[in-house]
Amino acid sequence: MSTSQRLTRIFDSAFEIKITDRSKLILIGDCHRGIASWADDFADNQHLYYCALKHYDRLGFTYIELGDGDDLWENREFWRIRRTYNQIFDLLRRLYSKERFHLIAGNHDNERLDPKTAERTLFEYCDERNGKKLPLFPGIPVREGIKLTHARSGNSILLVHGHQGSLIDDRWWKVGRFWVRHVWRPLQFLGVNDPTRPARNFRRREKVERRLTDWVRTHRHMLIAGHTHRPSFPHKGSAAYFNVGSCVHPQSITGLEIVRSTIRLVEWYEESDAKGFLRIVRRTISGPAKLIDYLKAS
Description:
- With 298 residues, the chain is of the alpha/beta class.
- It has helices at 3-13, 46-58, 78-84, 86-97, 115-122, 167-170, 173-188, 202-219, 291-295; strands spanning 15-19, 24-28, 62-66, 101-104, 124-126, 133-135, 142-143, 145-150, 156-160, 222-225, 241-243, 252-259, 262-272, 278-290.
- Helix 1 packs across helix 8 (202-219) and helix 2 (46-58) runs parallel beside helix 4.
- The protein is globular, with a radius of gyration of 18 Å.
């Protein structure tokens, strides 16, 4: 099945969320949460991510995670990841209890598309202080894609992780998982980066992004993805392919905000003030732009 066929199938069956001028969404992907080891790319930016989520929670945003939130290729046991970032998962659990957290699977957490795996790992966790099982994300559906339908125009935006643009990461993800676990993860401890990942391989990244963009042009739907880790915010009139970036940029995280029917690409990072104190800052990289300007071309 081609990338176009895969994306069309996901679009046709995707869970639908209607958005209005009052909707507030934050889309973030590719956190790659690990266990704070040398191979954990998320560890350095965990405080940025936590601060950003607290900000969005306080303002009533709905958080949609666009895949590869937890790196289950490098880490076999999710409970170790949850324990490592317990404070972050407490915040995610709170968002989920308010029906403001949605989860999309990526290639690094694709196993969660199996309902039994999702139930076993995500529905509850063991409180290590008293040995009791407590709810984490009870009943959470893990989806291949989500469709945001704009109430005013009636047009839809497809949200996917984006690995559908790569045969290896999509259909052969178990091979990729074996390769990362048993070859590249040990080498990563020695400082060697995996050159096969789209985020680190220019040609693979270009190929994935071209396939996703071709689907946008052919089917005239707006598409938001992650996977390549490269943020993308197209100009008005060009193909409406957006990319959230990732949480493993050097000393920053990126995401896309949808507020009052506008979209903007934002970055969270640290900077020092005049007195030398570090503070966490949010800035707009691109936008804001009206969604309708992209949806009109659909």
